[in-house]
Design goal:
Length: 221
């Protein structure tokens, strides 16, 4: 179903005149592990190796592995990045997490984050399937509120890097649904993409903080 969702997104966005580039990580055999092989020309401090520091230096000096540089160039050109995946263990599959670890490393900086992050002005969205119904991911469901589950991805990674994050596109348990329900899910996805320009991203830091701090105060009073 994730392949069908990807195809639907490509078709819907292309029909609107958008240029769409797909990174199929499995087809690319993308390396998920973050290692010294990500840096060409050797590391600066082999005795006290710190991947985050070394990758930042390598980025500044143009010494990143080719597969990382290619993906970073795609990000630099993109206005919108959609992550399409099946939810694994309440997160993304290992290969996609590896992509985030290796490709987004150059955007990690304490001095430029959130609303001042490297990808300021760009938008991102998670689009994924689950293996259970929506009720399981509610505030009364056994898995808890889906917004809490997604917080590390949407805020801790994407928003941290400066992306404005749209509400996720969630396909609830398509595997057990009927063919008609799956077709309806895909049609809803196409329709949403046609009107996405009118949506306001949820994770705009100042707006989100102000709204949720007020809600917290109200709940405590």
């Amino acid at each position: 179903f994730n392949a069908a969702a990807k195809d639907a997104a490509v078709a819907a966005l292309t029909a609107q005149g958008c240029t769409v580039e797909v990174s199929d990580l499995y087809a690319m055999k993308f390396k998920a592990a973050a290692t010294t092989e990500d840096i060409t020309g050797g590391v600066k401090n082999a005795e006290n190796f710190c991947y985050a520091k070394e990758i930042k230096l390598a980025s500044e000096e143009g010494r990143l592995a080719d597969d990382i540089k290619k993906e970073q160039e795609k990000l630099k050109e993109a206005d919108l990045v959609i992550f399409q995946f099946p939810m694994y263990w309440s997160s993304v599959p290992a290969i996609m997490k590896g992509w985030m670890d290796r490709v987004l490393g150059f955007a990690y900086a304490q001095e430029k984050r959130y609303s001042e992050g490297l990808f300021k002005g760009k938008k991102a969205m998670l689009s994924f399937t689950t293996d259970c119904p929506e009720s399981v991911y509610s505030d009364t469901g056994i898995n808890g509120d889906i917004n809490v589950t997604l917080w590390p991805l949407q805020n801790g990674i994407l928003n941290y890097c400066g992306f404005q994050v749209f509400d996720p596109q969630i396909f609830w348990d398509p595997a057990t649904g009927s063919p008609e329900s799956r077709r309806s899910m895909l049609e809803g996805w196409r329709t949403r993409l046609q009107t996405l320009g009118g949506e306001v991203p949820s994770y705009i830091t100042e707006h989100w903080l102000n709204k949720n701090i007020c809600n917290t105060i109200e709940n405590m009073s």
